[in-house]
Structures are given as structure tokens and as C-alpha cells.
Design goal:
The protein is 32% helix and 25% strand. The strands form five sheets. The chain has an eight-stranded mixed beta sheet with strand order 4-12-13-16-11-19-17-18. Strands 1, 2, 6, 7, 8, 9 and 21 form a seven-stranded mixed beta sheet that branches. It is an alpha+beta fold. The protein has 13 helices and 21 strands. It is globular and about 65 Å long. The longest helix is centred in the first third of the chain and has 17 residues. The chain has two domains: 238 residues, 3-Layer(bba) Sandwich (FAD/NAD(P)-binding domain); 182 residues, no CATH class. The two termini are 23 Å apart.
């Protein structure tokens, strides 16, 4: 059980580290979830509320949470993480281009959503007039089905190159001696290596935060983003999504000056529920094999805390727990009912011209869930968006709650993403270093190349 490198986590960060190391080192990749073909969620298959599968097949397994995500590759250095702080803007640009080519090699679509010239300037002017900032980036969209094909191709290639992959195996602790890593301890015994790359992903961020504390590693708390998933007829946003695919808008609340942003826009997509460390939260997908008549996207309010409370993750969990308590899972409400100060009912939902795609979401009242500050900021953002896409602030727009983006505590690492413990590297979303597929993939390469050098 002796290896050159052990990788903890089979998401994009772990996979790209393995691709870089394969055929050059003896590599073991450990993943606590199921293999991709065996990942199945009863919420989707049987249209029931979450039954708390362990491990959750939506957030754990080969490909990580990204396997069932919308599969967007943002070809930019400005969004998706903090890597530019470690390797610089120029080097990150090279890595982004390299990673994009690797995804193409394994079956990502050739089409790139991009816009320039007068049309881009018009989109930016319209945003400015609405007190919004348009954060433009070219997008390569895989789609949920296509993402899985790409991830399976990567796995087959890694196996052919000699990488040993073990799924359904949980890493309990990181083993160290005299200030350097020596391996990991799992449910099936200990595995040893002089180098360990920890890429735990969103599902493993709580575990890694505790391990970092036990090992004496310094961490910095990241903010939490809390908000709703908005669903409306896709014709309302088509003039944007046909060109940009995903419109990333940033707004600062007039009342509180809190940062509010759109995230993960899914044209022709569907709203989905997911198990987020035992809490049922909401997300969105656009599939490659089928479309709907709706578009959905998140509106998120960023919040951090200083004194005496310093744990934004616990705050986000508390808000999510309220929604689960009231609705048994995800709540849905018509915007008109929210503005009228009444809960949505199934009878009122049937009168909406927007048909909900997450059919088992419970009609309810989101004002019982969100603090006043968050609710005001969300409504202000929707009013601003209505200026660039008339129809967003419609009584028939649907709001699902709660959508929460937990960002792990950022572990202190070197420019090569090595921690203070020699040979131990921390990469990807679960280490608080990145926030998305592209930079997570880049981070795996950075750590692997440091080891090889």
C-alpha cells in the first residue's frame, strides 16, 4: 500500500491532478462516493423527497458534484476562484487555455458562447443603466448529460494509464510524521505516500476544515452566499442567453449595500434539489439531451461575519434548516404572492404562467425563511434585472429556496498549493481555493506539477 501520490477526491481537481501524474508516478485516487454509472438519486428517479442516501449520489462520487452540475467551463481568470493570487494572471491564463483543450480532447463540445464588439458594449450599457455590472466571460457548456460522458472518458483513460482508483472508500484522517505527510487512514486501512493531494470538493469541505484544525493548519473563513433560484419562461432571457448563455450580473443593494449576484444561469433548464451535507437545498441544470420552456438562475447575497460570530457556514446551514423545517425540503413561491405578503398554495401555483420544473417543491412563504436584509436585497436585484430583461419582476416568476453556496475555509498554502505540512497539497473547491470546474481543474495541475518537479 505504498504509492508516490495519494489523491483524496474524484472531482475535477483530483481528476486533473491524476491526469498530470499518470504514467509518471504510482498514483492512488480515493473517492468516498459511488462510481459514475452507479450514482442515482431517488429524488429524480422516483420524484420523492430526499431519503438521505449515504453517501449522497448528487454531491459525491466519480466526477464530484460537477458530474450532475450544469457543466459550464468559464474561460476566464477573473471568476471561479483565487488561483491568480498564487500563480499570477499570466500563468493562470495559460492553465485555463490548457485545461479547456483537455476537456475538448475528452469530448467537450466545440461551440463556445462568446460575444464581442457592439453587441457586448450594448449589453454592458444596458447593465450600467440598471445599476448592474455585467461580468462577461466566454462559456463552454457541456450540459449535465455531456459532462458525464467526458468524466467517464477521463476515468477510462486514467485506468489505462495505471492509476489505481478506489470508490466507496472514505478517508478518515491524514497521516503525518515530523511535519510531513506520510499517508491517509481510511475505512479499509492505511495507505502510504510521500505526497498527498487533498481535493475533497463541496461535500468534503467540513471534513477537511476539521482536519486542517487538527493538523494546526492556518485557515481563512470565506463568506457564504444565500439566496433563491429564480425560474421564469425562457423567452424573457433569450436575448441574453442566446449570446452569453450565462449572464453574470453583480449588484449592490441600495438599502444595505450588500453584494448580490446572479449565478449558474440555465437556459432551457430545470430546477433540482440536492442534499448538501444533510440539508436539502436547490440548484439548477441545463441538460444536453433535453430542454424545457423555462430558464432558471440563482440570485445570491454574499455575507461574511467578524465578531463575535465568525462562522458564515453555520449561518447558511441555519437558514437552510428553516426552509427544510417549513417545507420538508425545497420551498417554492410565486413572486406575486411574496409581494402580497401571503404564502403560495398549490391552487395559486396552478394559476402561474410559469410551470415549476421541480414538481416536488412545497409551495410556501419564503419571508418566513429569509432575514429582512436578504429578502430586500433579493427583491432589489430582481427589479434591477427587470430593466435588462423585462418580465423578470413578474408576479408569475417563481422563487425556490434556499440556494446556499458554502465556500470552505481557505487553507494557507504556498504558490504551488502546498500546505505547511511538507508533501500535503490542498486543491479545489473543498479547500477554499477555487469556486467552479475550470479553476478546480487548474488547481489539480498546479499541485501535480509541483510534485513532479
Amino acid at each position: 500500500m505504498q504509492y508516490d501520490v495519494i489523491i483524496v477526491g474524484g472531482g475535477p481537481a483530483g481528476i486533473f491532478a491524476a491526469l498530470e501524474l499518470s504514467q509518471k508516478a504510482k498514483v492512488l485516487l480515493l473517492e468516498k462516493g459511488r462510481d459514475l454509472q452507479k450514482r442515482s438519486c431517488p429524488m429524480k428517479v422516483k420524484n420523492v423527497q430526499c431519503v438521505q442516501c449515504k453517501p449522497c449520489s448528487i454531491t459525491s462520487g466519480w466526477g464530484g458534484a460537477g458530474a450532475f452540475s450544469d457543466g459550464k467551463l468559464t474561460i476566464s481568470t477573473e471568476v471561479g476562484g483565487h488561483l491568480s493570487e498564487y500563480v499570477g494572471e499570466t500563468e493562470l491564463r495559460k492553465l485555463v487555455d490548457e485545461v479547456d483543450k483537455i476537456y475538448l480532447q475528452y469530448g467537450a463540445p466545440d461551440h463556445l458562447y462568446t460575444v464581442e464588439g457592439k453587441l457586448l458594449e450594448q449589453f454592458k450599457r444596458d447593465a450600467t443603466k440598471a445599476d448592474l455590472y455585467l461580468e462577461y466571460s466566454p462559456i463552454r457548456h457541456l450540459g449535465t448529460g455531456r459532462s458525464q460522458e467526458v468524466l467517464l472518458a477521463m476515468k477510462d483513460d486514467l485506468v489505462s494509464r495505471g492509476v489505481e482508483i478506489k470508490t466507496m472508500l472514505t478517508v478518515n484522517s491524514i497521516l503525518t510524521e515530523n511535519g510531513r505527510v506520510v499517508g491517509v487512514s481510511t475505512d479499509s486501512g492505511d495507505f502510504y505516500a510521500q505526497n498527498v493531494i487533498v481535493a475533497p470538493g463541496r461535500e468534503g469541505h467540513n471534513w477537511f476544515t476539521k482536519e486542517a484544525g487538527r493538523l494546526g493548519l492556518k485557515t481563512e473563513m470565506n463568506p457564504v452566499d444565500i439566496g433563491v433560484r429564480v425560474e421564469l419562461p425562457k423567452v424573457i432571457m433569450e436575448h441574453l442567453t442566446d449570446h452569453l448563455f450565462e449572464s453574470k450580473y453583480i449588484y449592490y443593494s441600495k438599502t444595505f449595500e450588500d453584494k448580490v449576484r446572479t449565478f449558474c444561469m440555465c437556459p432551457g433548464g430545470e430546477v433540482v434539489a440536492e442534499n448538501n451535507s444533510g440539508l436539502i437545498t436547490v440548484n439548477g441544470h441545463t441538460r444536453s439531451d433535453r430542454t424545457t420552456e423555462n430558464t432558471n438562475f440563482a440570485v445570491l447575497v454574499s455575507k461574511n461575519f467578524t465578531e463575535p460570530f465568525k462562522d458564515p457556514t453555520k449561518y447558511g446551514q441555519y437558514i437552510s434548516t428553516l426552509a427544510n423545517l417549513l417545507g420538508g425540503g425545497v420551498l417554492v413561491q410565486r413572486l406575486g404572492d411574496l409581494l402580497d405578503g401571503r404564502r403560495s398554495t398549490r391552487e395559486r401555483m396552478q394559476k402561474s404562467t410559469t410551470r415549476q420544473t421541480l414538481t416536488n417543491a412545497t409551495p410556501g412563504d419564503l419571508s418566513l425563511v429569509f432575514p429582512y436584509r436578504h429578502l430586500v436585497s433579493i427583491l432589489e436585484m430582481l427589479q434591477a434585472l427587470d430593466k435588462v430583461a423585462p418580465g423578470v419582476y413578474s408576479r408569475n416568476t417563481l422563487l425556490y429556496g434556499v440556494e446556499v453556496k458554502f465556500y470552505s475555509s481557505r487553507v494557507e498554502v504556498s504558490n504551488q498549493l502546498e500546505t505547511a505540512i511538507k508533501g500535503l497539497y490542498a486543491v479545489g473547491d473543498g479547500a477554499g481555493i477555487t469556486r467552479g470546474l475550470m479553476q478546480a481543474s487548474c488547481s489539480g495541475i498546479i499541485a501535480a506539477r509541483s510534485i513532479l518537479s
